[in-house]
Design a protein that fits this description.
- This protein is mainly alpha-helical and 483 residues long.
- It has a two-stranded antiparallel ribbon with strand order 1-2.
- The radius of gyration is 22 Å and the shape is globular.
- Helix 4 runs antiparallel to helix 11.
- The protein has a single domain, classed as Amino acid/polyamine transporter I (Up-down Bundle).
Length: 483
């Protein structure tokens, strides 16, 4: 069954939607970012960032659920902004969203590829190295850039994902399901290991002054919530495939909310298990690749070495690295699949370069959009993981999520008669809380102006491109009218 927007099949069921969401959400993030989370607050009290991140995701997810059910079209936010803000304002904001997505989506993909490459380094020391890190200075702020073996591994991961995505959506159901089995199996193994080999007192072994509510506490909490927000994101992936969802009024809201609930439980269990085995002080203090860049592998080595010996402990650590690499690749796969539909939808609407609206002549997917995003992701693989995550989160908050939270309330006022198969619970509390929470994440962290500068640059550049395109199109219309 094809929708009216250009031939996409409505073949995505609830099970498939939840599968793709979970693949998107459970990437390398939770296996890599716990040291960053703990360092932000100096101990296991940083788990508060996970809890608040889950609540923030739930508030934001309710907004996505209402919009996705009411406007089940390819492109997600792009389609929503055009209806929330009518006329040229809507076209400008829709264009700006797609323009920033051509930066933020590749950042998201690159983060998974960089994380995968870091775990590859655990398999054999020296095989994957980061290379010399150079400082790229922009406007008085610096970004870490490197080009070691790890970078080329990350780029190769992007290429493999593109190869596997060169097929119809319906043909990828089995591949997606198989990837999800590996993802959930890896987390289950980690949780069982924590139960059998962990000391659960370590999960609540808070250092002195951990709950002293001073400025340092709230600055650290903002950094912890930024990391948690990055790890939770992806529950909205199904909305980008709205034009391919069966019974979207029911499928999209359920997929969004089920995904958030499942991942919240899995993340909290996973991180509690790691803390139980290793303890927060050891994780924060460690500098080697195991404890800092391949945390789950180091957890397995520490847990199983006393009972099985050094060789078996190392072998299980390497097995964990392989499983995390598969998990990271599954996330990259899902991200490229979902995001490639957005420039396609904008191009079909005439609000983005027409080349992005091309479907593959025999396989029916937006191949130009896919290749463009993959190319940008390869470029961002040269940057450090911390910089990629910070840039991604702030860009999305300022140029996508904030606009949607305001827009869903504007749309309620402007078009109260619009059919809404799902309505936000406790409206308008969730969008208001989401705005407050995301705003806190943006401005509470040290050096937050660096990411604001990047967001401002993207917004201004996108606006200039939009105005230039508008002037060119107007000139063409006037020329045709004169003839």
């Amino acid at each position: 069954m094809a929708d009216e927007s250009g031939g996409l099949e409505r073949s995505l069921t609830l099970r498939g939607a939840v599968t793709l969401n979970l693949l998107d959400m459970i990437g390398v993030g939770p296996f890599l970012t716990l040291p960053l989370l703990l360092a932000a607050m100096g101990g296991p009290q940083a788990m508060l960032g996970w809890v608040l991140g889950a609540l923030l995701a739930a508030c934001d997810g309710l907004v996505w659920a209402e919009l996705g059910a009411a406007m089940p079209e390819a492109g997600g936010t792009y389609a929503y902004l055009g209806k929330m803000f009518p006329g040229q304002w809507g076209r400008w904001l829709s264009f700006l969203f797609v323009f920033q997505l051509c930066v933020s989506a590749p950042l998201s993909v690159a983060s998974g590829c960089i994380g995968l490459a870091q775990y590859a380094g655990f398999l054999k020391a020296g095989v994957v190295t980061q290379g010399t890190v150079h400082a790229l200075r922009v406007g008085g702020y610096s970004f870490g850039v490197s080009a070691g073996r790890a970078t080329w591994v990350a780029i190769a991961v992007v290429g493999l994902a593109v190869v596997l995505l060169y097929r119809r959506l319906a043909a990828m159901r089995g591949l997606s399901a198989g990837m999800l089995v590996v993802v959930l199996g890896t987390i289950a193994w980690a949780m069982v290991t924590g139960l059998l080999h962990g000391q659960w007192a370590r999960v609540v072994a808070f250092p002195a002054g951990a709950w002293h509510l001073d400025r340092g506490f709230f600055v650290g909490l903002g950094s912890a919530m930024l990391i948690a927000t990055y790890d939770y994101w992806g529950y909205y992936n199904v909305t980008f495939l709205g034009g391919e969802a069966r019974d979207p009024g029911r499928t999209i809201p359920r997929a969004v909310l089920i995904s958030i609930g499942v991942v919240a439980v899995l993340y909290l269990g996973l991180n509690a298990s790691v803390l139980a085995v290793m303890g927060a002080p050891a994780i924060v203090a460690a500098q080697d690749i195991g404890a800092r860049r391949a945390l789950l592998s180091e957890m397995m080595r520490v847990a199983y070495t006393p009972g099985l010996g050094v060789g078996a402990g190392m072998w299980l650590g390497r097995l964990a690295a392989v499983l995390v690499m598969v998990t990271a690749f599954a996330s990259v796969f899902s991200l490229l699949l979902g995001y490639s539909r957005i420039p396609y939808a904008a191009a079909r609407d005439g609000n983005f370069p027409a080349v992005f609206g091309r479907l593959h002549p025999t396989r029916g997917f937006p191949y130009v959009s896919l290749l463009a995003l993959a190319g940008m992701a390869c470029l961002f693989c040269f940057f450090s993981l911390a910089d990629v995550i910070a840039a991604l989160v702030v860009l999305r908050i300022l140029l996508q999520f904030g606009l949607q939270h305001v827009g869903v309330m504007v749309l309620r006022v402007r078009r109260p008669e619009m059919p809404r198969p799902f309505r936000i619970w406790l409206y308008p509390v969730p969008p208001l809380l989401a705005l407050a929470g995301f705003g806190y994440i943006v401005v509470s962290r040290p050096n937050f102006r660096r990411e604001l500068l990047l967001a401002g640059f993207v917004a201004v550049t996108g606006t200039i491109v939009f105005l230039c395109r508008r002037m060119v199109r107007r000139g063409r219309l006037e020329h045709l009218a004169g003839e």
